[in-house]
Amino acid sequence: MKALIDGDLVAYRCAASANNEPLDVAIHRTDNLMRELLAQVNADTYIAYLTGKSNFRKEINPEYKANRKDQEPPRWLEECKEFLVIEWKAKMSEYYEADDLLGIEQCRVSNINDGCAFALYNETPTIIISLDKDLKMIPGEHYSWEIGTATWTKAAEFTTTTKESGIRRFYEQMLVGDVTDNIIGIAGLGPVKSKKYLSSAETEHDLFDLVYNKYDDPERFLMNGVCLWICQEEGVTWAHHLKNSELIIPNELKPVVDRTLESMTFFTKTT
Asked: What CATH number has the domain spanning 2-161?
């Protein structure tokens, strides 16, 4: 099993836990957590990922994560990230978040291992290790480690996401939004009501129509989708997904998709 590790969360958690401790405590905890995670999933190999300095989402939504700008990061956060790069060979790619890199790699290996291609490439199956629930839209195996305080604990959990459950989770998120990332969903629709509202949908087209009908602004609909969608292929955002899919796109949305794709300078230059 190849572990795909959310380095952002490892660094943040360990740095935050050592905020009032010397640097070597934060580094020691980072190293220990990495080793524990690999042991917990019985990994033969691993890749750790970190978020790049730039972010394609901010090109179309300058307010993306803007609500975090006044939050003081943990004291040793950058040092923990640097340790992951130097000692654990963590990977970083400009314009992408760690979530995107995790999604791209897991989907790449899943596609290679589909059917007879497995015998040809013999790639090791992957498992995403993260505490981020948004990653559950990525098909494949997932693991979240135990977290808690003196009064509260969330147990470690192995889960499997199918392609169908992953795409459904994305559209549910389109309704709910993501307060932590400053993405405003549909008023009055939380996780429970969103699941119920979409329960009748059988295909992605059904999901698309139901969610689109809740938005009164094509621009905001697409902006939220691009910000919430975790890339599953290099150079393919949700705007690219819509453009290349067989979904029937409303006429008023088509020019919004085209303008958005043209505005993504990084993808325009590299695809």
From this structure: 3.40.50.1010
